Amino acid sequence: MGTRGKLRVYLGAAPGVGKTYAMLGEGHRRSDRGTDVVIGFVETHGRQHTAELVEGLEVVPRRELTYRGATFTEMDLDAVLARRPAVVLVDELAHSNVPGSRNEKRWQDVEELLAAGIEVITTVNVQHLESVNDVVEKITGAAQQETVPDSVVRAADQIELRDMTAEALRRRLAHGNVYAPEKIDAALANYFRIGNLNALRELALIWTADRVDDALQQYREQHDIDSTWEARERVVVALTGGPEGETLIRRAARVAARSSGGDLLAVHVARSEGLTRADQGALARQRLLVESLGGSYHQVLGHDIPESLLEFARAENATQLVLGDSRRPAWSRLLNAGVAASTVRESGDIDVHIVNHGHASGRTTLPVGRGSVSRRRKIRGYLLAVLLPPLLALILVPVRDDLNLVSDMLMFLLLTVIVSLVGGLGPALVTAVLGSVLLNYYFTPPLRTLSIRDTNNALALVIFILVGMLVSSTVDLAARRTRQAARAAAESRTLANLAGSVLAGSSALTEMLERVRETFGLSAVALLERTDEGGVTVRGQAGPSVPEPADVEVPVEPGVVLALHGRVLEAQDHRLLGAFAAQLAVVLDRMRLSEEAAAAAPLAEANKMRTALLAAVGHDLRAPLAAAKAAVSSLRSPDIVLPPDDRTELLAAADESLDKLAALVDNLLDMSRLQAGALSIEAEPIALDEVVARAVDDVAVQGLPVTVDLAEDLPLVLADAGLAERVLANLVANAVRYAPAGSPPYVTGSHLGDVVQLRVVDRGPGIPAAERERVFLPFQRMGDTDNTTGIGLGLALARGLTEAMGGTLEPEETPGGGLTMVMTLVAAPDQARDPGRRERKEAGG
What we know:
By secondary structure, the chain is of the alpha/beta class. It has 25 helices and 25 strands. The strands form six sheets. Strands 3-2-6-7-1-8 form a six-stranded parallel β-sheet, with helices on both faces. A six-stranded mixed β-sheet has the order 23-24-22-21-19-25.
């Protein structure tokens, strides 16, 4: 078998970004260097610059195929194989061959060329990749029938992305560099929208970045490279299943986001004696959070957690590692540095972030339990009290002849102090008593008896017990004060955070209840409102539902209680709980105020509308009324003798003024009906070409030119024919009004999926993007000082009528300058028009 040919792919986000042009340019460069290059298949799509590049390269004649009575041309695979060039240029890799060809797809033809040892340079758009085909359909609304497996493109030796901004590509279309002039408007209106192009561009960039990343990983594996290459930021966050997990994930996500969109990876090292015993429920929630932030979740097995974390990070070429600070007590770190410290020590070139999750989360869990030390520490203290004194006695008995009684007593006293530090007063007293007995039995003459011969020794033992008790009491008191101070600090931080959230305007009831649940270590919290009839309404809750009766109920305000479930709170907890209840009352008040404000908003808007109406109508009703009355008064006056021409002119003026009044009143009535929801809509399948013709005729009567160019296969739409005509007439009249001389506006139509769009385009001054929504407000005339053109209801009414018919009306910038009004309506189901010949026409031109 011969050497397989190399494959080079030019990948683009959309047609027109220059893939074929780049492929032909590469062909010319290879040919100029003496390489045997031929064109197997190139489609120029009528683009002049692309066609010019075909010249100078050998073109293998295409093969003609007949299918269903029509003749098609395809790449002649046999002819290319017989020619055996060094390099062949093959356009449109995802193309489906005409039935009767050797292979169904062109990429299969390319595979044969590669197998024959021929190098292939080809092109493909990202929307034709199989893995993103469904995503592209959701973005553009158009299903791609021609696809190529990702594996074919990924196997390429070189992939070059041809990138272009959405705005630049739309300008290329507007200048006629991509499609023929008759297809430009439809393309801009449908597939080549800025949102579509940006989304496709992002898909292409991401897909190419993944391909480059695969190549980098493959190279590192082939060359046994273990060190981190910071070509792309990768942030690994270590999860233990503990409550700090969400804080760590969000911190890691922010680190990744600041690194120009770096990757986020979460890893849990499964081990029974890890950082903490894993809560599988918490890990499941944290996994969902990671994935919602665009990251990936991983689980690995490892005995040594720091080593496992670093092995995973290096395998993923991670650059940063995020860990939570240890939750173990400080004294235990003397025996074991902990995962965080060990990871930092062994991290090498990986940056390690140690997050103090207690402070980072902004939430504090209050110390729970009575006394100076916890129950676990007391148990540990009693065990030490029982084990350590005998152990010390065994150590000292062999050397008692070298030490005096004072030294022995000081050692037992030191042991008592150590036990008091661990277990508090009770274990220290046990140590003191047991130590005194052992001192009496083994170290005080007579030995091995409990009697004391020397009075001084008896006094020393009594003083030893008293000193042990005093020292233990002092240590216990200090521990108790430390615990109280810690609780006071925790309460202060909690109250500060609570006040800060209220001052910051946080009115999220569930957030406040969640904070109550976390602060007091409860399983569930609910805010219940009890009615006089005995019913209960849940205003909010955190955790599962609170069973009846609740463990604790705290009144918030009359008829509203805070129900707690999970444990019985201590008396000292109720002071802080009262603060939470007071803040919850504030939150409820704010919610009621927000509801009242929302209820008052329509009234305020209506009042604003009435004020604007009175201000606008004051002139616009008076002017035509005054003109009509003046004309009628002149006609009726017996003192004025008018020639026939003057009488006709006065009648025309009166008629025109009354028409303006009638139109104004109609607009006002329609606007009021729209706002009241009382406008009658008779939606039925209608033909847009007929509606457009009538709307344009209204303007054409005035001698104003309008160009109409509708697609031949426009389907029927569901709309009210009269209202649709009125909207279009309004839009066309506005376009005519602002269109410069010599550049008449035009109306174009297209359809995509189940929607149909009509675009009224003018080349006038346009409207700044920040001001476009204002044109749809009632009584607005943007940049207009002419009060004879109405009261500014036209576009507001046009949008309202369009939305009443289930459509939308949006403004867009016209490529090259101007404003385009896009009216979108829903296509009637199963009502496609028979395509017919429709000529471009000049109405009134």
